[in-house]
Amino acid sequence: MSITCIPRLLKFEVKRCGFILTSTPKIAIIPSASITSKEWRDPNVKKKAPWPYETKKYTYFHAFYDLTTSRFDENTKLIVVDGNIGAGKSTFAKELAEAFDMRYFPEPTLEPTYITPYGYDLRKLDPIAPPSFKICDLDTFLRNPHDPNVAKFQFSMYMRRLETYIDTLAHLLNTGQGVVMERSVYGDFVFFEAMFKAGYLSQRVKDLYYDINQVTLEELMRPHLIIYLDASPDVLLERIKKRNNPIEVNSPVLTKEYLESIEYFYKQKYLKGFSVPGERYIEGFNPKSGETHNVWFKTFHKSYRHASYDRDQQA
């Protein structure tokens, strides 16, 4: 074969290779995640005992013979149940955790910060404390949203949600047991924005809040799934009246406009920000009976079983 034939031969081979590449079926591997309810789990599969992280330290030497990742399974997930005030999050989250054999973490409150190790309630000192030292808790905010210490209250709630979220991650990664928590630190800004829009917080407070938010959340593992319980503000107001809590019923805060603001920031800012890499499940859920719950759990289990999500979040 002469040297002059080489260019034509190379041109032919390039065309042939291009034809093979374009005609070869493309196979896309989509990562998937699933969780299994107790009734569908194999009773013969025995999990390793959870690491007692609350009483025993996990040191560098333990990593050589007892990896905590050996306790992970398909239910090692962090699920957050979100929703507006009065959406039924507590009841639903408890039953969800029970159905999938996960641990339930309730929404944190500021009560532990007001009680000293000796059992004394610091709020008893409010009558003699200077205005800037008075305690502003949730009840105080609901009675007087323009209290000068409302900003301090919101920052304290953010830190409590951050501590609880870190506790859930510690439980998840040490024991392998899945976690269902009611609200999380990632959704705290929803209430902050609603308070800012209503005029309860200043622009300087908002700037400081987002500085702290950016620094504290950057390194945290995000939830695997967020379930948002959707209900209209009118329905929420009716449920608040039925709870018959005088502070909530007579509060100048819990108005239709305030609940609409919370709904807006949940749907337009919070949930859209979690469309990637996590998963969202929005349900217009109204708990009425155990049968309704069971039907919902089966629907949720079937729909999430093949949901895709970013495996990098497990690292």
UniProtKB/TrEMBL annotation:
Pfam families: dNK (PF01712)
InterPro entries: Deoxyribonucleoside_kinase, DNK_dom, P-loop_NTPase
Domain Deoxynucleoside kinase: 79-272
GO cellular component: mitochondrial matrix
GO biological processes: mitochondrial electron transport, NADH to ubiquinone
Protein name: NADH dehydrogenase 1 alpha subcomplex subunit 10, mitochondrial
Source species of the chain: Caerostris extrusa
Recorded name of the encoding gene: ND-42
